[in-house]
Structure formats: structure tokens, C-alpha cells
């Protein structure tokens, strides 16, 4: 994925998120967006630990299933990832794109999987909201800092990631990647 494609995906997501006038964590918008797009969504209690989610189309019906057993940040990422396959109109194989842990979280992913991941990162952690929340954190943190003198930069970064990942309901790991992308930490 080159920078042009990344920019395209980021712009697409910005358009989708324009409805977020209340500055809610974007994951909270998912059910409305899914309804608007006429997608049927279901969490399924799957025994297969490797299975994360699937996007498939039967006739006119578009469907997303995610594994209900995933822990919340991972589940959220998977839902946004499947939505990425839908918005980016990725080619289906036998009517479906099946995403397991390896395709979403592993290395050497096929290009559409990387794109769906990037879509999910842009969707769940929009740049402008990250800046806003980071500023908010820094205000609070500098007040706290007077109480805990001698805090190191590393502690501050850890607290920042904790604060942001809690708000956006994503894993600390994906938050770390996203902040690095913008050189925000
Ligand atoms: Zn996928």
C-alpha cells in the first residue's frame, strides 16, 4: 500500500466520520453506519479461536459476522476491518472474505487485508480526535505531574496510550502503531 492509497483510504474514512458531530468514540457509530449501508450484522459464538470475522454477499444481501468470543478491542478492530472490506469494495472469493487472526493480525498479509486494517485504524482512531484527546490528556497529566514528581517520559507515554486506548476502545498495541504513524509519541 503506497502513500497515495493510504491517503485515499484516510479521506474515505473522514467522509464516513463526518456524521460524528458529538465526537463520540467512532466505534459507537458502527451500528448506525451498518444500518445505513443495509448490512446485516451478527456476533456469532464461534468455537474456532482463529476466526475473527467474515464479510460476504448473497444476492443483494451484505453480511458481516464477527466472533463474539474475541476480547473487546480486538472485536472492535475486526468489525471496523470488515466494514473496510465493504467500503473498499474488495474482491470476494466465493462470495466472501474470511478473516482469521492470521490475516488480520499476522505479518505477510495480502494487500486487501492491509487495506482493511488501515481502514480500521483510520476509522477507530481518527487523527484530529487523537490530537484533541492527547491535548486533553496532557492538560490533566501536567496537573497530576505536580503530585507525582519525577515521572519519566516513558511513564507518560504509557499513561497516554492507556488513556487513549480506553477512550477509543482499541488495544494498546494498535494505539501505539497509530501514534507512531503521526509521530505523536
Ligand atoms: Zn479481512
Automatic annotation (TrEMBL):
InterPro entries: IrrE_HExxH (IPR010359), Rad_response_metalloprotease (IPR052345). It comes from the Bacteria. Residues 37-180 form the IrrE N-terminal-like domain. PANTHER family: ANTITOXIN HIGA1, BLL0069 PROTEIN. This is IrrE N-terminal-like domain-containing protein.
Amino acid at each position: 500500500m503506497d502513500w497515495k492509497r493510504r491517503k485515499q483510504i484516510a479521506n474515505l474514512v473522514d467522509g464516513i466520520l463526518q456524521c460524528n458531530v458529538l465526537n463520540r468514540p467512532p466505534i459507537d457509530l458502527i451500528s448506525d453506519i451498518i444500518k445505513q449501508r443495509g448490512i446485516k450484522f451478527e456476533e456469532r459464538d464461534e468455537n474456532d479461536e482463529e476466526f475473527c470475522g467474515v464479510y460476504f454477499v448473497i444476492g443483494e444481501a451484505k453480511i458481516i459476522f464477527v466472533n463474539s468470543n474475541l476480547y473487546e478491542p480486538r472485536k472492535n478492530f475486526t468489525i471496523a476491518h470488515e466494514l473496510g472490506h465493504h467500503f473498499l469494495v474488495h474482491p470476494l472469493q466465493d462470495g466472501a472474505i474470511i478473516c482469521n487472526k492470521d490475516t488480520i493480525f499476522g505479518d505477510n498479509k495480502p494487500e486487501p487485508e492491509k487495506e482493511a486494517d488501515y481502514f480500521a485504524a483510520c476509522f477507530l482512531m481518527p487523527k484530529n480526535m487523537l490530537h484533541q484527546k492527547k491535548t486533553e490528556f496532557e492538560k490533566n497529566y501536567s496537573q497530576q505531574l505536580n503530585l507525582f514528581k519525577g515521572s519519566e517520559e516513558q511513564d507518560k507515554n504509557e499513561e497516554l496510550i492507556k488513556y487513549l486506548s480506553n477512550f477509543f476502545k482499541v488495544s494498546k498495541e494498535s494505539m501505539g502503531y497509530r501514534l507512531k504513524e503521526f509521530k505523536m509519541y
